[in-house]
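anyone else get weird line breaks when pasting these?? whatever heres mine. first is seq + tokens for prot A
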Amino acid sequence: MYDDILVPTDGSETISETLAHGVPIAVSNDATIHALYVVDSRITAAATDDSTDLERTLEEEGQEAIAKVEKRASDAGLETTGHVREGTPAKTILEYADERGIDLIVIGTRGKSPREKVTSLGSVSERVVDNASVPVFVVRGAGENE
């Protein structure tokens, strides 16, 4: 049913909960896990100093976040692919899903970094759910209030 599953990550600990649900779905469908980290262009655009260092730091954080997802998926015997892109998180996630023919998006809630909490106008997962053309499996973060 699912051949390609997108797991967006922001590098937070919420990804553990998200993968606890996403990996078994991928295993049961022999699906490829696509890990995606979005460098929020609103953060780099708002930087007053040389944004090159900030962009480099965020890209490095993104590579580390992608590596965690890829390791967990490959440990389960899954094929993986990882990408770091720059843009607005929800929009970029949706564009990636459309470009790559993603069948399912598995996304966590409450995964924002402190910088993202300041700059975000709304929930990335909520925007993805509202606008996705494919099913979205939303995983509530550990300890999140009901």
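and prot B, same format (seq, then tokens)
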Amino acid sequence: MSNQELVVLGQDAEGCCPTLLTAPMAEDQAVDLAKVFKALGDPVRLRLLSIIASRAGGEICVCDLTPAFDLSQPTISHHLKLLKQAGLIASERRGTWVYYRPLPETTDKLAAVLTGPGSVVAAASAEPAGAAS
């Protein structure tokens, strides 16, 4: 008997869910993902997530986020709240400051849904430009 793991076609390596290129998305999954994409649809929120996710140590204090933007502290807090509601970040209060960290399970899920099967990407890149079938 082989020790190799079987991969079900149309699913990512984790067996989680079909990608956009392999099967139509279920309505409830589309609703959930739309909330996350809506949260990422704002340049400030996208930058906030990038700053938080790229921080050494995996977390950052809100006091270090605010100076990176030409926005008021309440506006930054509002954007952080929306990222948190979308499940992209988590927070922890320590004294008077709040520390934020990314939630990789959400970003990994987004990556899995957006990633096409290897054969589709490989076939598209292997075909010379302008080649006709």
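btw re prot B: Confidence is low (pLDDT under 50) at residues 1-14, 119-127. DSSP finds six helices and three strands in the chain.
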